[in-house]
Amino acid sequence: MHSVINDIVNSTEKRILQIDNGDTLKRDPEKRDIVNAIRTKRSLNKVAVISEVKPASPGKKLRDISPEDAKEIASEMERAGAIAISVLTEPEFFHGSLDNLKAVRSNVSIPVLRKDFIVDKIQFEETQSDLILLIAGILGTKLEEMVQLAISKGFEPLVEVHNKEELEEALKTKARVIGINNRDLSTLEIDLDTTLELVPRIKEFDNENGTEHIIISESGMHTTDDIRKVIEAGADAVLVGTSIIKSGKIYTKTKELVDALDE
Ligand SMILES: O=C(O)c1ccccc1NCC(=O)[C@H](O)[C@H](O)COP(=O)(O)O
């Protein structure tokens, strides 16, 4: 694991000590269904884009985003046809917040993903979202248990993998949604071919087991060519942060990616 990831996980572990066990968030009982949203979008030959409210990457500030800004940004993403909104909530390295998550979910009607470094079930109690990210490379042997717990709490777990070993672990779980992260968390290098390498194994598993996983290609997509590359390889959806936020034109850039198959 890259030292930045170790730092992020260490900082998260310290932060969760502050979560008050008795202070359980009252969650909206309605879960917005991303699986249907993705299938509907794809049936219209549009790209299912999960658009990310991302203030920063480690060491790289993109834009200050307050809860009010987050609401406005997410509304523009929804208007432009995004099927879901991802909200980074990690405060130290990504400048995200749970307040941004809450603000976004109350202001859009599409599914919302909490994008963070979940290391302990206590984090479920502070989360107002429909989906929650579980990173196989971080959770290791705890992955299956965390997937079960997330489902029992009413979340749709999005299990993120980057290599074949992590993918095999993800396929052993009950998760319906698998994210292939094109960013290697050991080196932070991005390679869209990661999606091309891992999709066939998911398809093979589904054929053998009568399952139908939803595949999300995550990170490093900037152009419509990038989007077409991963969709043509078999991804059902894409998760895009930096290129949308950096464009400064949230509506226009999101729509360009949603319409990438029109060209
Ligand atoms: O964004 C980073 O640089 C990063 C570094 C280390 C761990 C995670 C990181 N990103 C978290 C994400 O999951 C991305 O924000 C998301 O996949 C969107 O990626 P991008 O479109 O490349 O901003």
From TrEMBL:
Q: List its EC numbers.
A: 4.1.1.48
Q: One Pfam annotation, family name? A: IGPS
Q: In which pathway does it act?
A: Amino-acid biosynthesis; L-tryptophan biosynthesis; L-tryptophan from chorismate: step 4/5
| Sequence ranges assigned to domain Indole-3-glycerol phosphate synthase in this UniProt record | 13-257
**Per its UniProt record, what InterPro entries does this chain match?**
Aldolase_TIM, Indole-3-glycerol_P_synth, Indole-3-glycerol_P_synth_dom, RibuloseP-bd_barrel
Q: What does the entry give for GO biological process?
A: L-tryptophan biosynthetic process
Q: What one GO molecular function would you report for this record?
A: phosphoribosylanthranilate isomerase activity
Cite the entry's keywords alphabetically.
Amino-acid biosynthesis, Aromatic amino acid biosynthesis, Decarboxylase, Lyase, Tryptophan biosynthesis
Q: Which reaction does it catalyse?
A: 1-(2-carboxyphenylamino)-1-deoxy-D-ribulose 5-phosphate + H(+) = (1S,2R)-1-C-(indol-3-yl)glycerol 3-phosphate + CO2 + H2O
This protein's name? indole-3-glycerol-phosphate synthase
